[in-house]
Design brief:
The complex is a heterodimer of chains A (215) and B (186). Chain A is built from 8 helices and 7 strands. Chain A has 215 residues and is of the alpha+beta class. Chain B is 81% helix and 0% strand. The radius of gyration of chain B is 19 Å and the shape is globular. Classes of the chains: A alpha+beta (215), B mainly alpha (186).
Chain lengths: 215, 186
């Protein structure tokens, strides 16, 4: 029989042996080594299984969407880079992906994190939120974001100090809008979270315009 | 592991043990499954790591009676799909295309001269299929999952799984015909 016919006619047989075929070929080198397994477990232990004991960074809810967004951020060349649709304003927009958007909506989270800027001792970014939730809800979300950010930062820079010990961090929570303005608009800000370098406490400015600070 | 055991092990040490068990039981399969989507070992390892992180964080949300394997696979596949839609992947793909374009023509000729055996041709053509057909073929034939289980993992009806499987096989058959003709000059 013609080789071509043999091959095509026996495709179903071959598919039934797919595990053997792929294991012997395509997946031959795709194995989970003991060291890689340990590395994964170590990273989990570092990030969530044995978290910092600070009261401010309790970590309760699922963060996959935030993790996803922040992983995207961290994979950009570096966080000091600012890019986007407005050169003057150094605007960085990280739209969540389709699946992420669905989850974000379910969790009533923002769909965008904007204007990330970082230098050697500061990190600031803006998170757009729907303003129909209570402030406590957003406080928890910001703590989660910062916790995940810190975890990822540590994973990327294991030899550096904790993020908390290096940087003043400010997060501006602004009202959600599908087309965010290119410039930072303080009038849009609902809540500001600020954490000074070396401090474990997040200061909450619940009324940004009157500069009222609550801890 | 049964859900009852998970609920009983809500402590940190218990969760750590569960994750270790999952990694041992499903780690390599998830790694390979992720590789079938992203076709890059390093990224597949990252996806495995992210999957285990999500599994840990969502452990308490697992419904009683829910199939553990399907649940973990669904998390991993969603992460693969999110990555494939990402800007990071598009940049990675572009750099690969650019790399291929600057490869020497001599090397391409050499590659063409490599005679592949039929199993290798099957594996190559399978990995060239569109993701939606490749995933059902791999989940069905490699992972030995039923149409219902695949439907649960992918969030589609078993009937859709069946038709994708049928069409995927047809595409694979066509590809094999073309590939054999190309490799053996027939």
């Amino acid at each position: 029989m013609h080789l071509k016919e043999v091959l095509v006619n026996t495709m179903e047989d071959k598919l039934n042996q797919l595990k053997h075929i792929l294991d012997q070929r395509t997946y031959r080198t795709i194995t989970l080594t003991k060291s890689r397994e340990e590395k994964i477990l170590d990273s989990l232990t570092l990030s969530v299984i044995k978290p910092k004991t600070s009261k401010s960074f309790k970590f309760k809810e699922t963060l996959s969407i935030i993790t996803l967004a922040l992983l995207m951020i961290l994979t950009f060349s570096n966080l000091t880079t600012q890019s986007g649709n407005n050169d003057e304003n150094n605007y960085l927009s990280i739209p969540f992906l389709n699946k992420g958007e669905q989850i974000a909506k379910q969790k009533k989270l923002t769909s965008e994190i904007l204007r990330i800027q970082q230098n050697h001792n500061t990190l600031t970014f803006e998170m757009m939120i729907k303003d129909n939730e209570d402030i406590g809800f957003y406080k928890r979300k910001v703590e989660e974001v910062l916790k995940v950010y810190s975890t990822l930062y540590k994973r990327l820079h294991p030899n550096q100090k904790e993020l908390w010990e290096q940087k003043n961090i400010t997060v501006y929570l602004s009202r959600y809008t599908p087309n965010p303005p290119p410039f930072f608009d303080p009038n849009n800000v609902i809540l500001v979270a600020h954490k000074s370098v070396h401090s474990n406490q997040i200061e909450w400015v619940t009324n940004f315009h009157e500069n009222e600070v609550k801890k | 592991m049964e859900l009852k055991n998970i609920k009983n092990s809500v402590g940190i040490a218990g969760k750590e043990k569960i994750i270790k068990d999952y990694l041992r039981d499903y780690g390599e399969n998830i790694l390979r499954l992720a590789y079938s989507y992203v076709k890059d070992q390093t990224k597949a390892e990252d996806i495995l790591q992210e999957t285990m992180l999500t599994v840990y964080l969502q452990l308490n949300t697992l419904r009683e009676g829910a199939a553990l394997k399907s649940w973990i696979y669904r998390i991993a596949i969603n992460k693969c799909k999110d990555y494939l839609k990402s800007r990071q992947y598009r940049q990675f793909k572009l750099s690969k295309i650019l790399h291929l374009n600057i490869a020497s023509p001599e090397k391409s000729v050499e590659l063409k001269l490599v005679i592949k055996d039929e199993n290798e041709i099957l594996a190559t053509e399978l990995f060239r299929l569109k993701s939606k057909y490749r995933e059902v073929i791999i989940l069905h034939y490699y992972e030995q999952l039923t149409l219902e289980e695949i439907g649960t993992i992918l969030g589609i009806k078993p009937g859709t799984v069946k038709s994708r499987l049928h069409y995927g096989r047809q595409l694979l058959r066509n590809a094999l015909e073309g590939s054999v003709g190309k490799h053996y000059g027939r």
